[in-house]
Amino acid sequence: MTTFKLLLLPGDGIGPEVMAEVERLVAWVNAAGLARIETETDLVGGCAYDVHGEAVSDTTMGCALAADAVMLGAVGGPKWDGVPYEKRPEAGLLRLRKDLELFANLRPAICYPALADASSLKRELVDGLDIMIVRELTGGVYFGEPKTITDLGNGQKRAIDTQVYDTYEIERIAAVAFELARKRRNLVHSAEKRNVMKTGVLWHEVVTRLHKERYADVKLEHILADNCAMQLVRAPKQFDVIVTDNLFGDVLSDEAAMATGSLGMLPSASQGGADASGRRRALYEPVHGSAPDIAGKGVANPIATIASFAMCLRYSFDLGETADRIEGAIARVLDEGLRTADIRQDGCRTIGTREMGDAILAALDAAA
Ligand code: IPM
Ligand code: MG
User: Fold this and answer.
1) For position 118, what pLDDT does the model report?
2) Which of 5, 147, 277, 340 has the fewest CB atoms within 10 Å of its CB?
3) pTM for the full model?
4) Cα–Cα–Cα angle for 54, 107, 9, rounded to 5 degrees
5) What pLDDT score was predicted for residue 278?
């Protein structure tokens, strides 16, 4: 049996609480003889800054590069509001994405039937919703240079962020989207702002050409990013795969996530290109943040992180069947009427983080 090395980076806020439930699932997978997963735990974000003066240390980066996969909880919180910009907790996450070259961020927005009433949209709009947002993750305005604030000397300052994309960056993320669409409902929406941005013009041109050359069997729609945001709340089920740049992807994925009922439910996978041996670097994390307001109270929803672990099993360890079982256990627990506070519902029982972990483990055992 192959041994997989999994690096756990729980991070800040509710990160450690939700990651603790993943550790119990890892133990379950190992005990059931489904795989051999060795974990190591390290610091990222504000907690890393407190210890090392950096949001991620070089040693931790070394471990991340050596691991078969990385799982991250969440980073940030008001405690670190005053730290220098380069050392802020988010810088740790951004360095991981950049140095591991995780250019493809997959953010599924799935509405569990049991939760359709928890959405801020009407049930009929979201029941059965299943969208995959493919967000470019290592380029665009997040990393473009120059990125500066200069004092103009006349009482004014000037801030500059740079949105930059090269052809190859657009090509490789669009290819990921087309490949995924072929395994789903065969439809890709490519979202940009070609009406005001040069990067949007190039994005449109490259996606159109790639589609014609290699993916003509997939249905492609171009959509302006603002219209996409509107359509996501008007009629979200018209989408299958949405491919977009780093910043639009950040915004549109939060919007799509909320349509499903709770940000606390959604996992994500970030993947790099395949190396010579076919191995892809990958990092898995919940879409939600560190939720400092509820940190340490044992009430956070661990489902997004557990579902991220399922994605890790499927995409990095080729254990799709075990991933299916975990996702099935999540659905069953929701059907049984168990809810954490963020998805609380009349007629359902509200439970804490640990009890949700217990319930998912019990559902796995019951199905075994
Ligand atoms: C996300 C987050 C991050 C981002 C932050 C924490 C830097 O919002 O993963 O969506 O903007 O990418
Ligand atoms: Mg975000």
Assistant:
1) 83
2) 277
3) 0.93
4) 30
5) 79
Annotated catalytic residue, options 193, 215, 245, 315? 193
Task: Identify the residue with better confidence: 115 or 147.
Answer: 147
How far is ligand 1, taken at its centre, from the CA of residue 236, in Å? Answer: 22
Please name which ligand lies nearest the alpha carbon of 251: 2
Cis peptide before 146 (omega within 30 of 0): yes
Closest Cα to atom 5 of ligand 1: 90
Question: Is the Cβ atom of 255 under 6 angstroms away from ligand 1?
Answer: no
Atom of ligand 1 nearest to the CA of 97: 12
Measure the CA–CA gap between 116 and 128, rounded to whole angstroms.
8
Question: Tens of pLDDT along 1-10?
Answer: 889 999 999 9
Residue from 271, 278, 353, 258 nearest 311 by CA: 271
- Is it the case that residue 224 has pLDDT exceeding 80? yes
**If you count them, how many residues does the chain have?**
368
pLDDT at 196 over 90: yes
CA 240 / ligand 2 centre spacing (Å): 20
CA angle 288, 60, 285 (to 5 degrees): 20
Q: Is the CB of 93 under 6 A from ligand 1?
A: yes
User: Does this chain's domain 1-110+266-368 share its CATH topology with 130-259?
Assistant: yes
Residue of 44, 136, 250 to mutate, ligand 1, most atoms within 8 A of C-beta: 250
Q: How far apart are CA 273 and CA 94, in angstroms?
A: 17
Backbone angles phi, psi at 120, to 5 degrees: -80, -10
251 CA distance to ligand 2 centroid (A)?
A: 6
Domains of the chain, residue spans: 1-110+266-368, 130-259
Tell me which of 3.40.718.10, 3.40.50.1240, 3.20.20.100, 2.30.29.30 is the CATH number of domain 130-259: 3.40.718.10
| Homologous superfamily of the 1-110+266-368 domain (CATH) | Isopropylmalate Dehydrogenase (3.40.718.10)
Instruction: Check whether 272 has a pLDDT greater than 90.
Output: yes
Stretch 295-317: mean pLDDT: 96
